């Protein structure tokens, strides 16, 4: 009875204040943060209003109708002069399109992608996957991770995600590392890769895209600030050095070795080889049977060197490649044919150079490839 009397004697105002205070505490503990609210508002403001809007903006279906008929989509105006690609993309809220040709799904690739510190609401992901058994398995695994991410914490969600399936057969039946790197497979494999890259690029590049990051599906380790670091150089085309970690049984410890040999500076020997070739023949890098004597960025790495050191390049690899969207808008694509005896990413660098754009390499800035 004592507790009942105590409650009756309590001031009603005190009880009300106590209840309100409890509610405020609950909202503070379990409600969305101001950052989450800002992110949510940004997503709504930047979502596509109709199915004909750029695919790099998330589409939110509308049921608006007039007199029982669906309202026709509006005419959308874009001021392309307002689209920037600067050395401070995060500060200027510049959108990034990450493009990945995906034949196999690696969980480490996705985990690394989630660790990128660039605001995810400014990132669109797009994948192109072959129509075969491996491609089906990759699509299933990818969709599982996408669902988990896009239904999770809002600040970790990406602006939009696009999955495309190739409308042509892959050049190789198997995608093992040994088979991919056989010299006799290079022209057909890389021609097919070019077609896949071009299909993915032409169907996803929107008028609001500032940067395009080409990131291979087997790149499993990069610095978290990859996008900011590469963009800070403010170069039209920039590529880090791709290495591979492996276990050295002799030294009984993990070591690393160069992996991508497609980033290079040209040589007179390579140019002389090209002069002797037929119109459809291509130069290949990293094979003893075709000594080009080019200067390879893979061998320029200095562990004690500055990660911001820049070198000019004539050819680039595509394992991790940041490109200003304007370079692609100007027409630089990945030739699936012999372009000055070059193909795919190396041909892209040559084509971009013919359009007035230069390529830059960062020999001491490393990303890491999966080791099969």
Automatic annotation (TrEMBL):
Q: Which InterPro entries match?
A: Mannan_Polymerase_Subunit, Nucleotide-diphossugar_trans
Task: Give the span(s) annotated as Disordered.
Answer: 45-73
**Where does the record place it?**
Golgi apparatus membrane
Keywords of this entry: Golgi apparatus, Membrane, Signal-anchor, Transferase, Transmembrane, Transmembrane helix
Can you name one GO molecular function term for this protein? alpha-1,6-mannosyltransferase activity
Stated membrane topology is: Single-pass type II membrane protein
**What are the transmembrane regions?**
12-31
Q: Which residues form a coiled coil?
A: none
Q: Where does it primarily localize? A: Golgi
> What Pfam families does the database record attribute to this sequence?
Anp1 (PF03452)
A single BP term in Gene Ontology: protein N-linked glycosylation
Q: Name one GO cellular component term.
A: mannan polymerase complex
Keyword Transferase assigned to the entry: answer is: yes
For this chain, the family text in UniProt reads: Belongs to the ANP1/MMN9/VAN1 family.
Entry protein name: Glycosyltransferase family 62 protein
């Amino acid at each position: 009875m004592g507790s009942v009397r105590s409650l009756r004697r309590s001031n009603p105002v005190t009880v009300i204040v106590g209840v309100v205070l409890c509610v405020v505490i609950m909202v503070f503990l379990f409600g969305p943060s101001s950052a989450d609210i800002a992110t949510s508002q940004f997503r709504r403001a930047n979502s596509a209003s109709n199915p004909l809007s750029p695919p790099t903006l998330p589409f939110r279906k509308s049921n608006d109708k007039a007199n029982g008929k669906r309202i026709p989509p509006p005419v959308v105006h874009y001021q392309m002069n307002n689209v920037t690609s600067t050395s401070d993309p995060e500060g200027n809220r510049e959108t990034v399109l990450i493009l990945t040709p995906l034949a196999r799904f690696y969980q480490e690739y996705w985990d690394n992608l989630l660790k990128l510190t660039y605001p995810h609401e400014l990132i669109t992901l797009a994948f192109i996957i072959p129509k075969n058994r491996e491609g089906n398995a990759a699509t299933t695994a990818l969709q599982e991770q996408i669902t988990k991410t896009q239904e999770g914490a809002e600040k970790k969600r990406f602006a939009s995600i696009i999955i495309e399936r190739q409308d042509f057969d892959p050049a190789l039946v198997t995608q093992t590392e040994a088979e991919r790197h056989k010299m006799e497979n290079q022209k057909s494999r890389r021609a097919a890769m070019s077609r896949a890259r071009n299909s993915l690029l032409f169907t996803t590049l929107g008028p609001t895209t500032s940067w395009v990051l080409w990131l291979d599906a087997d790149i499993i380790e990069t610095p978290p600030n990859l996008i900011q670091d590469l963009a800070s150089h403010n170069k039209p085309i920039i590529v880090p050095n791709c290495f591979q970690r492996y276990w050295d049984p002799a030294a009984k410890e993990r070591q690393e070795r160069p992996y991508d040999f497609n980033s290079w500076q040209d040589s007179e020997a390579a140019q002389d080889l090209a002069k002797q070739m037929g119109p459809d023949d291509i130069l290949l890098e990293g094979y003893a049977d075709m000594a080009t004597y080019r200067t390879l960025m893979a061998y320029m790495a200095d562990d004690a060197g500055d990660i911001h050191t820049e070198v000019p390049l004539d050819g680039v690899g595509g394992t991790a490649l940041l490109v200003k969207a304007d370079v692609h808008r100007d027409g630089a694509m990945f030739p699936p044919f012999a372009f000055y005896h070059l193909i795919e990413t190396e041909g892209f660098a040559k084509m971009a150079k013919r359009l007035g754009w230069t390529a830059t390499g960062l020999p001491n800035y490393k990303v890491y490839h999966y080791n099969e």
